[in-house]
Amino acid sequence: MQCYRSANFNGLLASWHQMVKDGATIDDMSLETSRLCKNFLFITLKPQATEFKLYRARKCLSKDYFKLISELNYPQSQIVTKLGRANQVGKPVLYVSQDARTALYECSPQIGDFIAILEYKTKPGRSLNLQHVGFYGNQTIDPSIQKTIGSISARLRSLGYDDRGVSNTNLVHRLLGEEFTRLITPGNENEYAISAAIANFLLRYPECDGLMYPSIRLPCDFNIALKTKAADHLIRPSATYGLEIVGVSLPDIEFRYWCGATSISADGEINWLHGPTLPPLAWNSAGTAALQGPFAPPSAT
Question: What was the pLDDT predicted at 285?
Fold first, then answer.
């Protein structure tokens, strides 16, 4: 295993960024990043929960919200015209979060926004094999995944890694995690070339269903980019929630809960419910179905 230090790894990342500025293609960056990634261990994680839930949030044009699940699900290939954090042009992935709070924060909500949140559950008897990038050592992460990961350093040692190997691998994950949480402004989607290339390398393995990486909005939480095949065969939509954002004073977000659905027709039509028939917001920090309530991130301590 090649030994890296923080300084020369930062230099490598800087050279990649310069390549992107100079017009390097996604194929160019895939070749560059594979030279690094192939030398390091990327642990596949299988969440142990009997019923693993994932969430996706999308802004709506009005309080009418979406009518069909297909409008909330991953986009079709022909409309994926830009690079994303883990996708190439014309190659969609399903971006989801570990919980609704994280998905909502990833939307960068503003007062007056109407947002629909789609909840997925793993299908009976199915589970997800997820590659992780950006989680390292004994860092503080959400308890829902901490139990699955355990001590990453201890797992590396159990696989025969010595001190240098553990240090090297943790360094790679830390700095790649920084790349996956780098803020890219609209109009500069070409700068996703590095993270998209890394995702392309990791997702090429057939046994890998998706890529798990730190949330840019809530670093203690995580997001997942699922292959569309895995999304179609391993998870199912289970509920939807319609919110109106009425207050934003980060890290708090206030919202009105307008409509919800736990019934989705065979043809994918969302059967929205209103008023007293609203399903409870099981993921709300207050654990109630109140029409207005705060979202607050978990403590990082």
Answer: 43
- Contact between residue 215 and residue 207 where contact means Cβ atoms under 8 Å apart: no
From its phi and psi, is residue 222 left (phi > 0), alpha (psi between -120 and 50) or beta? Answer: beta
Q: Measured in whole angstroms, how far is the alpha carbon of residue 22 from the centre of its chain?
A: 29
SS3 for 291? Answer: coil
Measure the CA–CA gap between 259 and 141, rounded to whole angstroms. 31
Helix 6-21 to helix 26-37 angle (10° resolution) is 170
* Maximum separation of any 2 CA atoms in the chain, in Å: 61
Neighbour count for residue 300 (Cβ, 10 Å): 11
Residue numbers of the chain with a pLDDT score lower than 50: 1-4, 138, 140, 284-301
* Predicted pLDDT of residue 76: 93
Q: Is the peptide bond prior to 251 cis by the omega test (within 30 degrees of 0)? A: yes
Which stretches does DSSP call E strand in 100-221?
114-122, 130-132, 210-214
pTM above 0.70, yes or no: yes
What residue segments make up the domains of the chain, in order of their start?
A: 6-45+129-210, 53-127+230-295
243 vs 65: CA distance, rounded Å: 9
